[in-house]
Amino acid sequence: MILEIGKLPTHLLEQNILSKIQPQRKEILVGAGVGEDCSVIDFGEEICVLSTDPITGAIDSIGKLAIHISCNDVASNGVEPLGILLTILAPENSNIEDISQVLNDAKKIARALNVEIIGGHTEVTTAVNRMVVSTTCIGKGKKRHMITSNGAKYGDDVIMTKWAGLEGTAILARDKKRELEDVIDEEKLQEAMNFMEDISAVQEGILAGKVGVTAMHDVTEGGILGALWELAEASQVGVEIQEEQIPLKKVTREICQHFRIDPLGLISSGVMVMTTNHTEKLLAKFKEKGLQATVIGKVIEGKSVIVRNGKKIPLQPPKSDELFKVI
């Protein structure tokens, strides 16, 4: 069976991977699962939260992205990231300056997030044809405050931060700049490139954890619709999403129209989805900190749907990210 580029389809992931690695030890509070961003280990009153991710869909700024995506995962459990293990796999004929640039970019972002790069691995290999960076992030928190992707309750509001397609827009603007210069004006293209500065969701995740949410999930491959499906699946509930309420920047829409891809299926690191019954308090806290958050739907019984032009359309499991149709 030939697979598409990107994450494994959910049914194949469950059948061939997750079914073989279910937790056996009582210390493992959260193991691998659809929609779960992290694993969680019980350390008494405290928990250790871990997440690992590679960067495979970008060329520019991969050191920055590598730190952000793993830290965002840990923050989706409402805890602060502490340390990062960083692996760099460089293709044949790489030079030391390229590797140093990846590390310098990673170090800069880690320092800004108060996260330590505590180890890893670096090598040149014929196994890759371009630079691949993988990170494992470690965080800790109080067990009683633990948040996962599987706690959404019927009647909760569904909230998303920032706007759909954030990371994918930044990647396309940078990696496809020459092509886009002919169709997007310079000011808009620069705006899209600057989205790279909005890819951290750590502040939002930690704040949401303090205020109180029932479930939280960061938006990566598969875009906002994929993340919503995963959260609902993990919680064994449905969600009803109002498409017109999903924030979307004009430049994202224009770039996606040019490449004929769906912005709602575009990788969106920097965006967090969460469910809560403390909506007014949470939105007020976000506004107080200058953070964007929008109510986009409700947790419901039954199947997940997106309401588009007044019509309810079933929400589908995430497929290969729209980014891979372009890069």
From TrEMBL:
This is AIR synthase family protein. CDD domains: PurM-like1. GO terms for biological process: protein maturation. Residues 155-307 form the PurM-like C-terminal domain. Belongs to the HypE family. Transmembrane segments: none annotated. Residues 35-139 form the PurM-like N-terminal domain. InterPro entries: HypE, PurM-like_C_dom, PurM-like_C_sf, PurM-like_N, PurM-like_N_sf. Gene3D superfamilies: PurM-like C-terminal domain, PurM-like, N-terminal domain. It comes from the Bacteria.
